[in-house]
Structures are given as structure tokens and as C-alpha cells.
Design goal:
single chain, about 190 residues, Immunoglobulin-like, 1 helix
């Protein structure tokens, strides 16, 4: 007859502990490297409107186009074209600084001209521009002296986008009268009239 002895409880606990320790230490000493995949992409702009990067002066070109005159009022459409490689967004009214013409030439090279600027047209709405797509805003002015205030010659403007500190000079020649100019919000082409 064969007698089989059952292992003691102490022996079972010691064996279990040894097996668990060999699994833990065996995994730590494994020669197989732990591989982690990381994807690196170009840095994203930190300033956004919604989920789209804000357009910056560096991504845009500004082209003034005379819109016409009627009953003493005239206007320019300033086309704003995204020349950058990414889609970007605009929102609000641009800030305009006016400069007198200068015999030496060059945008922004004349002395600063003091004109009162007021906002006109529909309220601002977000405008998203894909590369090569354009937005616009209007400069509306009168060509007839108002209340004894004459006309001022402008040779260029500096344009600053809403909530940004950079500006860009743009050559534009006109003579607003009455010491005032109206500026519309940035919008898609064809959505505003003076």
C-alpha cells in the first residue's frame, strides 16, 4: 500500500510565494524592451477661435480695391487673403492707423493722420479662411467737407487684426472729409455694402 501525504499548509504558502516572486522578478529582468510609440507633429498655434487657429498678419495679404462713389460718399473694399499653408479664422473689426502721403514713398512712411474711426455694418461674425481664400472689410468715407471740417490726404494705412499686436502697412490713396472714416467688420466677400 502506498501512502500519499498531503503537503502541509506552510509548505503550500512557501511554494506559492516562490512562484509569485519568480514571475514578478522574471518580468523585471526580461530582455525584451518595452516599446512605446510616439507621434510628433508640427507645433500648433496657441491662439485659436473655436478649434481653428487665428489668422495672423504673417499669413495674410491686404489689397485695397476702390468700390465707388455716390452722393458724396465713397468706399474701399480691403481684400484680406490667406497666403499661409493652414486654415485660419478672423473675427471682429480691424484697427486702422492712417498716414499722410510722403514724397519719399512707401506705406506708413508719412506722418500719422488723426481721423475718427467708427464701426459700421453688420456685427462681427467668425470668418474661416482656407489657404488662398479671402475675406474683406470696408473703409467708408465722405468726399465732401462736413461741418467746416476739410479733407485729409491719406497715402497709406497700418492694419492691425483684432486682439493682435502686429500690424502691416498698406498703400492706399484717398482724401476723407469731415475727419471721420467708418470701418466694417471682417466678413466674407459680397456680404457687405457701404
Amino acid at each position: 500500500m502506498v501512502i500519499i501525504r498531503r503537503p502541509s499548509r506552510r509548505f503550500t504558502l512557501v511554494m506559492f510565494g516562490l512562484v509569485a516572486a519568480s514571475i514578478v522578478f522574471g518580468a523585471c529582468g526580461s530582455s525584451k524592451p518595452n516599446v512605446t510609440s510616439t507621434t510628433t507633429s508640427a507645433p500648433k498655434p496657441t491662439t485659436t477661435i473655436g478649434a481653428t487657429a487665428k489668422c495672423t498678419i504673417a499669413l495674410l495679404t491686404f489689397t485695397p480695391v476702390f468700390g465707388g462713389s455716390a452722393a458724396g460718399g465713397s468706399y474701399f473694399r480691403l481684400n484680406v487673403t490667406n497666403t499661409g499653408p493652414i486654415t485660419c479664422a478672423l473675427d471682429g473689426y480691424p484697427t486702422i492707423t492712417f498716414f499722410a502721403p510722403n514724397a519719399a514713398g512707401g506705406a506708413g512712411s508719412g506722418s500719422a493722420v488723426s481721423l475718427t474711426v467708427s464701426h459700421s455694418g453688420p456685427l462681427p461674425r467668425r470668418v474661416t479662411l482656407k489657404p488662398a481664400q479671402s475675406a474683406q472689410f470696408l473703409l467708408v468715407f465722405t468726399e465732401v467737407p462736413v461741418n467746416g471740417t476739410g479733407c485729409t490726404s491719406v497715402g497709406s494705412v497700418d492694419i492691425q487684426l483684432p486682439n493682435q499686436s502686429e500690424s502691416t502697412p498698406v498703400p492706399i490713396s484717398f482724401s476723407p472729409c469731415g475727419g471721420a472714416v467708418k470701418v466694417s467688420a471682417l466678413s466674407l466677400p459680397g456680404t457687405q455694402n457701404p
